[in-house]
Amino acid sequence: MNTNSERVALSVNVNKVALLRNSRHLGIPSVVRAAEMCLQAGAQGITIHPRPDERHIRANDVAELHALMQSWPEREFNIEGNPFHNLMDHVRVVRPHQVTFVPDSEGQFTSDHGWTFPQDAERLKPLIDECKALGVRVSLFMDPIPEQMAAARAVGADRVELYTEPYAATWGTPENAVQLQRYADAAAAAMQAGLGLNAGHDLNRDNLPAFVAAVKGLQEVSIGHAFMADALELGYSATVQAYLACLAK
Fold first, then answer.
1. 113 is a catalytic site residue
2. What percent of the chain has pLDDT over 70?
3. Tens digit of each residue's pLDDT (9 = 90 or more) over 59-95
4. Which of 150, 191, 200, 206 has the most CB within a 10 Å radius?
């Protein structure tokens, strides 16, 4: 288990590239080219979150990114979303390295909470079992509640992705230290339960180093909105390098 002496992996979420492309019918900017440039710059993975209305990532993007990732066998392809919507259709076809189950509604603006146990256990278990039978690692999007970690492991998850918006929202305030301790405690509980540890949502170049330093065992962060906002100013390559430097701190 990673204790942060090993490198924390950066998975770049390219949804916002697709959102911009979808505002016109010209096919630009290219989602595949964006992913390729991030991989070339050293990103350890690519994340997508296809939603049923295809407001950003579309079905053909999933197929094209899967094809791209064949040229990068040491990098990770992570597909996230609600397994009770359209997610499993993609998972069964492309069999990504990792699937992250997220309990968002079909029209939800962005993910804003994690799974709850024991309420969600019965309906999640058969889909988790199916993913694992396909050879796909399963991560569950979870709030930083230590008591929930053992339950996530019991239902078959390999990892949890801690939902980090409450931490990010308090950045620069006295409340932030309290929030950060919540994540450190949840991470310790996850490791105690035998879970791998991911994190994501509103992490950025300002708040990421402190989070990585405090949350022991962190293996991977998934960053999209802030990453793409930075890339508009810095470019993909420089932004990847900036986030890798944050993780190295």
1. no
2. 95
3. 999 999 999 999 999 999 999 999 999 999 999 999 9
4. 200
Return the bridge partners of 198, or none.
161, 220
In this prediction, residue 4 carries a pLDDT of: 47
User: Which residue, among 181, 177, 179, 221, has the nearest Cα to 197 in the 3D structure?
Assistant: 221
Residue 80 a catalytic site member: yes
Is residue 90 part of the annotated active site? The answer reads: no
Quick check: is 195 in a domain?
yes
Specify the CATH number for the domain of residue 79. Answer: 3.20.20.70
Q: 49, 56, 76, 90: which is the annotated catalytic residue? A: 49
| pTM: predicted TM-score of the whole model, two decimal places | 0.92
Q: String of b and e for 118-139 (b: at least 16 CB within 10 Å)?
A: eebbeebeebbeebeeeebbbb
Residue 106 backbone dihedrals phi, psi, to 5 degrees: -60, -40
Q: Is the pLDDT of residue 110 over 70?
A: no
First to last CA, the chain: 19
The rounded distance, in Å, linking the Cα atoms of 39 and 32 is 11
Enclosing domain of residue 182: 9-248
Of the residues 80, 90, 161, 220, only one is catalytic, namely 80
Structurally, how many domains does the chain consist of?
1
**CA 119 to chain CA centroid, nearest Å:** 23
